[in-house]
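Input:
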Amino acid sequence: MIPITVVDVSDAEPYVLEVLRSGVIAQGPMVKRFEDTFAEIAGVDHAIAVNNGTTALVAAIQALDLQPGDEVVTSPFTFIATLNAILEAGATARFADIREDDFCVDPEAMAAAITPRTKVLMPVHLYGQTADMGKIAPLAEEHGLALVEDSAQAHGAKFDGKGAGSFGLGCFSFYATKNITTGEGGIITTNDAEIADKLRVMRNQGMRARYEYVMAGHNYRLTDLAAAVAIPQLAKIDEITAKRKANAAKLNEGLAGITGLRTPSELPGRSHVWHQYTVLIGDDAALTRDEFAAKLTERGIGNGIYYPKLVTDYDAYRGHAQVVMSETPVAAKIAQQCLSIPVHAHLTDDQLDTVIGTIREVLGA
Ligand SMILES: *Cc1c(COP(=O)(O)O)cnc(C)c1O
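Output:
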């Protein structure tokens, strides 16, 4: 089986041992090192580590002091955490359709979704490519809205040379299968010193100094043990990204010209970090998407559907007081057609050839 993801924490051992031997296993100097290194990668002044990516999103929204009924406009084609975080933070979610070329929220649809209650625009940089920040950032500015970037899949991605997570409040995940991992972990990036300070206090029970509580806070802290796992990965993030980019280029070349199969692309001005390599299987393909997925599994090619349904397509959210339903036909169609195949940094040339050869064979190309 050629797996869809490989978790590589092989270089972590000395750093984890260093933490174990130090006796400081909760939040300490390794978290600080993780934050400083990641701030540099994202190109921001501040990075605040938290215990997972969902928490990063919740904390970012909480830091904006929204009132009940205030709205966050986001994409319906995302991992469920995007929506859950909005709801947990007490805001109302409203959805804008996505674009077919980047799978991210469409700036025009976002503009149309803005109401007098809108307070936040929350693009999701899906699969490792940023949304069209050249249009979304000015839109936020023009309407006086905060920008929260769900950057969970986009470590090191760029738009016009600017890092994902550097346009507003960037929320990253370090879950096991993300491009960089701490097992479970998250980080919020920002250039706003005041918000950074607030997030640091919020994550630690609202405590500014020992037993000096200045807000109702939480325990959102990451452990030094977890942070240690990511240190060596951060040191070689450029290498990891370069390998993913090279793999995507090989797949794009090898899978070109197959009837009914659309390969993904890195759009001009964007640097895609290829968290996922996602193809679309159209009506004119030799197999349906689900038949294609089953055939790949049968032939030992790992694959995954990210995501089979829109986040609004679950009973749990239907009729939810904080969820505004809307028609998003492009996202609905893509959820039916998408399939991700292996692009991770551990693929060998032989494995890439096998992936390409198998796909050409099962689609009769
Ligand atoms: C992984 C992910 C999250 C949540 O991160 P966790 O660390 O799993 O809590 C949020 N949004 C998107 C788009 C993700 O892929």
